[in-house]
Design brief:
By secondary structure, the chain is of the alpha+beta class. It has a domain of 306 residues: Neuraminidase (6 Propeller). The protein is built from 10 helices and 25 strands. The strands form 6 sheets. It has a 5-stranded mixed β-sheet. A hairpin with a 5-residue loop joins strand 23 and strand 24.
Length: 460
């Protein structure tokens, strides 16, 4: 290579280094190191690829954008929250779609002045059209401000005892919809004005326990009438979840909301993207820690509101580094083959050959398994190198490099053993965030935070 060629190569390398360095200096990323990243699992045995999801029927295409999670009503109806801020209801076959609530409309100044009950009244009509158009555009020209104005309902839970559908919005907190009164809504707490306090430990608790919530994700009603709620990040809002995923930092928390006094308490901190949560047998909380590819379990007794400063909760809340789990938290399922999203209990006798044992259905938003996992590769990189790769490619392009793949796991809810998995290697139904096996029709319903449809399939 001649001198002129070497000079041109040096200039090109220097220019590229300058551009990457400039991008890094402006980047909002703060990558967190992971010293013991596991090898991606192999897909064999119960994880062996199959084609169960390939023949899924796509329902309500472009009418249901981003059906993130499901809740089952007393009459077998299905509820889901959408990217345009609506909550919709379907029958037990996933048909006859009907809108029952619109977060953005309900919270708008016009609807508040009009005393609106659901946000579907005339006062919210214009905003609803705007939000539907933005959702269908699927990130083209969208912004965090638009998503916040429209609302983003994520976690849902129906409680038959008081005929109430509880809706957790990523930005706006918790709502209660009275099903017996045409889904008339009331806001139980506003995330913008309700700052959590540590459940125990007082002044010794880490500052992260008191940070405002930014990304409410899922909820579960405890036997004592309080709600367990996951906050995926105290730094990034839901709209910027790609940045939180690339950071893989311990900014997630488990919170408890008490409707009796309106308090919001931090029970666990230092989680790497706290995601789906369910309560098993009324005694144990199961939590998806997405960016550690695992499901955690913690006894509710260890999270008791009366535990006091000497409790395991108090000790855990003095450190939120994510370096190690508190002693009262154990791993139920480790090194799962992807980004574990929502958790859904399936009735005993469901699929997976569990011999009558209750199972746990997990939507896997992103497949991460051998022979190659982009997420594992990124987490292996030192923080500076990870920042450089993201600065060079950008979060959106990196997301496009992730293979489109549909995957649902079914675990034994007691042991965490994977008993079955359902795949779509073609990517026709990719990025599954949730799966619900309907107890009467037998359909497996599939939701996604990204897909512009919900799907149903006959699965084992």
């Amino acid at each position: 290579m001649g001198g002129q060629s070497l000079l041109l190569l040096a200039i090109a390398v220097a220019a590229l280094g300058y551009m990457v360095g400039k991008r890094i200096s402006k980047s909002p990323l703060e990558p967190f190191p992971w010293s013991q990243v596991p090898s991606p699992p192999s897909l064999h045995g119960a994880l062996a690829p199959n084609e169960v999801l390939i023949n899924a029927e796509l329902l309500h295409v472009n009418e249901t954008v981003g059906p993130e999670a499901f809740a089952l009503g007393a009459d077998g109806s299905i509820y889901t929250g959408l990217a345009d801020g609506r909550v919709v209801m379907l029958n037990d076959r996933g048909e006859d779609l009907r809108t029952v609530f619109f977060v953005g409309g309900f919270l708008s100044s016009q609807c508040r002045e009009a005393g609106a009950k659901t946000g579907l009244e005339e006062c919210g009509k214009e905003l609803r059209a705007e939000c539907s158009a933005a959702a269908r555009a699927r990130n083209r020209g969208a912004s965090e401000d638009t998503e916040r104005r429209c609302g983003r309902p994520l976690g849902l839970q129906f409680v038959a005892s008081n005929a109430t559908l509880y809706v957790l919005d990523a930005y706006h907190g918790l709502f209660a919809l009275d099903v017996s009164a045409r889904h008339a809504a009331r806001q139980l707490f506003d995330a913008a004005s309700t700052v959590p306090e540590p459940a125990a430990g007082g002044a010794r608790a880490h500052r992260d326990t008191r940070r405002p919530v930014r990304f409410l994700n899922d909820l579960a009603l405890a036997p004592d009438g309080t709600f367990l709620i996951t906050d995926s990040s105290w730094k990034h809002a839901r709209f910027n979840n790609r940045l939180e995923i690339l950071d893989a930092a311990p900014r997630g928390r488990l919170l408890r909301f008490d409707p009796a006094d309106g308090s919001l308490k931090t029970l666990l901190c230092g989680l790497h993207f706290a995601n789906g949560v369910v309560i098993r047998n009324g005694t144990t909380a199961l939590i998806a820690e997405s960016l550690r590819f695992r499901v955690l379990e913690v006894p509710l007794a260890a999270l008791s509101a009366d535990a006091g400063d000497a409790s395991a909760t108090a000790a855990a809340l003095t450190r939120c580094s994510g370096a190690a789990l508190p002693p009262h938290v154990r791993v139920l399922a480790a090194n799962l083959p992807g980004f574990a999203d929502n958790l859904e209990e399936s009735a005993p006798g469901g699929g997976g050959g569990g011999g009558g044992a209750a199972t746990l259905l997990i939507g896997v938003g992103t497949r991460a398994a051998k022979p190659f996992s982009l997420l594992h590769y990124m987490f292996w990189l030192p923080p500076a190198a990870r920042s450089a790769v993201v600065a060079l490619l950008g979060p959106v392009l990196m997301e496009r490099l992730i293979p489109r793949y549909g995957l649902v796991l079914e675990l034994n809810a007691q042991t965490g053993e994977v008993q079955a998995s359902y795949h779509d290697p073609t990517g026709r139904v990719p990025f599954v965030s949730t799966a619900l096996r309907h107890p009467t029709t037998g359909y497996l319903f599939l939701g996604s935070s990204q897909n512009p449809f919900l799907a149903r399939v006959r699965a084992p």
